[in-house]
Structures are given as C-alpha cells and as structure tokens.
Amino acid sequence: MKKFILLLAFLPANLAFSQEIPSLQNIGNRKTSSLNGKWNYIVDLYETGYYNFHLDQYDRKMDFQMGAYYFNYHSPNKQDLVEYDFDKSPVMNIPGDWNSQTKDLFYYEGTVWFKRSFDYSLKAGKRLFLNFGAVNYKADVYLNGIKLGAHTGGFTSFSFEVSAIIKNKNNFLVVKVDNKRQKDAVPSTNTDWWNYGGITRDITLIETEEAFIEDYSIQLGKQDSTKINGYIRVNNARPQDSVMIRIPELNISYKSIIAADSLVNFEFSGRNIKYWTPGSPKLYRVLLQYNNQTLEDEVGFRTIATDGGKILLNGRLVFLKGICMHEENAKGGRGNSKEDALRLLSWAKELGCNYVRLAHYPHNENIIRLADKMGLLVWEEIPVYWTIDFKNPATYRNAETQLKDMIARDKNRAAVIIWSMANETPLSAERTKFITDLISVAREKDPTRLISAALLSESKDGIHTINDPLGAYIDLVAFNQYLGWYGGNLEDAEKIKWSSIYNKPLIVSEFGGDARQGLHGSKYDRWNEEFQEYLYIQNLKMIDKIPNLAGLSPWILVDFRSPRRLLPGIQDGYNRKGLISNEGKKKKAFWIMKKYYQNKP
Ligand code: GCB
After folding, report:
1. Contact 424 CB / ligand 1 (< 6 Å)
2. Ligand 1 contact via 144 beta carbon (within 6 Å)
3. N or C: at which end does the chain have fewer Cβ atoms within 10 angstroms?
4. Atom of ligand 1 nearest to the CA of 560
C-alpha cells in the first residue's frame, strides 16, 4: 500500500484527480477493450468505505486509511484492521442495474461499491481513456487507489484519462455508485419510473495515439442544405498538422490545416446527396483522417425545420407518427444492449411509427444508432421532470451539463431531430428562466435541431389551450394530456375544442391510460383492455381536431416498472399504460393505434 501513497505524493495534482474529458465521439469505432463482465460488489448502506466515523471523506484527506474501500486493501499483516474484502464479496453483471439482478437490492437506494481487476499493457507513445456509458446516479471512480474523479447524472457518458496510472498487471478499478434520490438532483425525488442503480451502461478502455481526433460534428447546413459543415477537434495536435474528411460514395475528400485551437471548421459542397428519411435511412461511410489514423462513422444527412404549423424534413412535410418509450429490458431492468434496442424499436416499427419519443432521460447509444439505421426519428430528453429545484444554481448547472453531454454524444445522428428540455414542469418564473437558459445552451451547441418540452394543457369552458410561456421559446409546442384517465369524460372527446396562441406545430407528446393485459370486460371499467382500447378510440377523435397537429406519441410502448404503481393484482409495481405488456404481449389498443397510423398519410 505504501507504494500508492508514494505514487500519490509524486503525481501532479491534475493526474491524481484526472480531469473528466468531454465524451469522446464515436467510441464504438475506436481501439477499445471492454471492462464489462462480472464485478465484485459491496453494499455499503452507511458509506463506511467513504467516510470515517466523524464523517470525514477519506478521498479528500488523501491520507491512507485502511477503511477506505477504494484502496482495495489486502493486508499481509494479521494485526491490521481491515473490515472489507472485494475478492470475497459477491459478483454481479456489469453493465446492469442492481435492482433487477439481486433480490435483496430490488428496493435499494444508496451506495454500492464495485471492483474489477485487470491487466493492460500500454505501449510507450499511446494514451488510454476510461469511459462509462452511464452510472446512476453519482459515481466516484478510483483506479489503483487514485481518484480519477466523480460524475453526477445517471444517463450520460463520461471519460477519464488513465495513461499515467495504468500498470501492466493487477490494475484495480473501484467505483462507488450512489443512487439516493435528492431534492436538488436532476431528476429530483419524485419520478414515475424505477430508480435503477448501478453501472448501467458499458465500461470501455479506449487506446489512442498521443494526438488523436477527439470530437467532430458533421451535418447539412441549416441555411444551405447543399453544404455539409461542422468541425473536427484534435486532442494534442501539433502546429501545421492537417485532417482530412472523406465520403467515398460522394467523391468527397476535404483536407485542412488544424488551427491553433486544435479545431478545423469545415464547409464543403454536398451536392447529389441522398437525404436520410424514415422511408430510406441512407447512411454514408465517413472517414476522418489524421496522420495515419482513420476514424470511421456512418452518417445520414437531412434537414429539419418548421414553417408555421408544419414540420419539414428535407423541406417536405412530415407527420410524426410516434410512441413514447422507457429504456427497459425484457426482464424488467435497465436496458442497454443492442438486443434491447432492437426489441423496442422493432415494436415501434410494427406499430407503424416513423418517430419515437425517448422518455425521460438520454437513452443508451445503441438505441440512437439503431434508430439511425431503421429510419426512426427521435426526440431526446433530459430528466428535468416534474418538480426540480428550479431556484438552485447547482441544480441548473447539473441539468445544463446533462444537456451538453446528450448533445455531444448524439449530434451526428440524423435520426435525432428534437432536443427536449423538460417534462410537465410546474409554472413559475424560476422554472421558465431555468428552462429558457437551457434552451439558449441547446441552440448554441446545436443550431440545426428543433427544441421542445412536454408541457401541460389547460381546459376552460370546453376549450383546451396551451398557455405556457415556454411556448414562445420552443420550436414545437408539445403537451401531455390524459383525457379519460386523469380527468375529463371520454364521451366528450369530439366536442372538445383546441386553441393555441402559438403559430407553431403542436405535438401530443403523451396520452393514454392503463390496462392489465389479459383483463377483459366493459369498456367503461378501468384496467380492462377494452377500456384502454375505447380510450384510444376517443382520444384519437379529439386529437384529429387539434389545429396545427404535427404528430403524436402515445404513452407508452411497453408497461414499465414504477414504485408509484402499487395496485395489487393489476399494477403490481408497473405502470400499465403500455400498448404491450412487460411480458411482450400486445393489448387491444395496440391495434387501434396501428390502424390509425396506417390510415394517416
Ligand atoms: C405523465 C408523465 C409520465 C407518466 C405518465 C403517467 O404525464 O409524463 O412520466 O408515467 O404521465 O402514466 O401518469
């Protein structure tokens, strides 16, 4: 152990606490090795491995404490007091949430420590980065007893450089994961989904050269769709180095010298491009070259804009035939794999969708990349959900970081057309300031996509309106409304009138009601499949009368776990608004929705 303390003493501060680097673009196509697999874990309800008995945080004091779990201490000395041992602790699959893997941890919210040992031989002149696809909610990361850093926010990717810390043999990576809900967090304490804890997405080591392409953006120009523009950023570039972009199928080959700030901004003609559309999701092979390195991607090109009440994809009217979905797998746990993505998106396709709303947080990259391939337009969202601590500047910074990280990862995916800032947030001046500040950031980071937020409608004297000041700032006025479930009478559906003060596209971002699959009876009684079917029939009649209606995404594709949904024999811990049950069986309303989309031009 002394060795580590010595190492710490001689490491410059910026390496002892390796700085988090903005997510590396396109990790899947780099030289990687996976750290997925079985990891040892210790459930630490009292955070005994993090604080001493006076609640001093071990990793802040930087002096060795045998109690600090991240040292993974094995004493050769029988006199030493060491009260933990990763190697004798149980294992679980990573990536994976702990709730669905371990019965005892089903309801657990707190700290769990994870450890994995591995060898890695890093040759001179190479660099190594450690990337986490996502950890819910807070991660403290330590490699070989040295803290790399901490990350907050359960659905975004983050990386640390580990070149100076990695050893050929017996590295140990320790991650403390804490998913306690907090009032000032994003999301806050109250959500209608399961707070799955753990290392929920892939853990990957990425090996690079000393200097390498870190990030890039490539898409059609907003003003001039005959041009392709964007940037390439090289990490550690030397003066006068150059980068090249090639799109062989379009005979494009563009070379440029890297500017002093390591950046190349580019714009070149993109004539004869076959646009990406849901019907024909054309992806081009794009090669980014720097020195003798080539990074490959598959990129679709399309434009997205609005004109009054219309949404225009490549300049042509598009109606969003959508469905909402959570990121859950077939077993009732957090989804992450390609198979999980395929299962969900195939159902969306079968329903007749050209669009999915990924609620209520950034989903994993497999889903986004598959949507790109399958031709599904995507709404992505950050978990600014219901009641957030809107007055708290730290909460704002947290939300802003999650927004930036979401945009950073997915900005090159043609499928993604909408960034959503929030869902059903209560009106107040602070809330509107919070969200409009987020909107400014989103527009600055990505001026090409549409901005939205799921709002609430108001009803007065039989007239429904969207009366939210945010309507003035967003491109698509989206709203959730639950006629016949949380209020209102289904018989009145056709009589309801809609008005909007905004001359913008309106989207019904949610509607629906629960049904227990297999439960049949009167269409007037809740929980029956016939009730849900009737609710859909009536809601769709109402929805068709909404002026400027540009799309809809019923709530929701599949039943999902929620601690708020407790009715025995019916809900049993699931929100039952799915068109498909959690066992994968379609309910009657599925076919109503499918027919509606079939008949919609
Ligand atoms: C909503 C929320 C969604 C809930 C849904 C419901 O409005 O946006 O997260 O799950 O209603 O089932 O109540």
Report:
1. yes
2. no
3. C
4. 10
The answer to whether the CB of 423 is under 6 A from ligand 1 is yes
How far, in Å, CA of 152 to CA of 100, rounded?
A: 22
Q: How far is the CA of 507 from the centre of ligand 1 (A)?
A: 16
CATH number of 223-302: 2.60.40.10
Question: pLDDT tens for residues 124-176?
Answer: 999 999 999 999 999 999 999 999 999 999 999 999 999 999 999 999 999 99
Which is the closest atom of ligand 1 to the Cα of 424?
A: 8
Query: Nearest 5 degrees, angle CA 420-CA 423-CA 425?
Result: 125
Closest atom of ligand 1 to 423 CA is 8
Strands of the 111-118 sheet, one edge to the other: 91-94, 37-43, 111-118, 171-178, 138-143, 146-152
Instruction: List Cα–Cα distances, 522 to 92, 530, 532, 534, 577, in angstroms.
Output: 45, 6, 10, 10, 18
Ligand 1 centroid – CA 525 distance (Å): 20
Residue of 555, 556, 561 to mutate, ligand 1, most atoms within 8 A of C-beta = 555
Give domain limits for the chain.
Answer: 2-209, 223-302, 305-599
Q: Is 409 in the pocket of ligand 1 (CB under 6 A)?
A: no
Q: Which CATH class is domain 305-599?
A: alpha beta
Long-range pairs, 341-346, Cβ under 8 A, ≥24: 341/366, 341/367, 341/370, 342/370, 344/557, 344/558, 345/370, 345/371, 345/374, 345/376
**Is residue 39 within 8 Å of residue 92, measured between CB atoms?**
yes
How far, in Å, from the CA of 344 to the mean position of ligand 1? 19
CB of 575 sitting under 6 A from ligand 1? yes
Determine the Cα–Cα distance for residues 371 and 415; give it in Å rounded to an integer. 6
Backbone φ, ψ for residue 547 (5° rounding)? -70, 150
Prediction pTM value: 0.96
How close is the Cα of 193 to the center of ligand 1, in Å?
A: 9
C-alpha to C-alpha distances, 124 to 172, 207, 467, nearest whole angstrom: 21, 12, 61
Residue type, 553: S
Tens digits of per-residue pLDDT, 504-551? 999 999 999 999 999 999 999 999 999 999 999 999 999 999 999 999
Structure-token pair, residue 303: 């434009």
Q: Domain 2-209, what fold?
A: Jelly Rolls (2.60.120)
Structure tokens belonging to residue 156: 């975004």
| 485 CA → ligand 1 middle, Å | 11
How many C-beta atoms surround the C-beta of residue 248 within 10 A? 11
- Digit-coded pLDDT (tens) for 404-419: 999 999 999 999 999 9
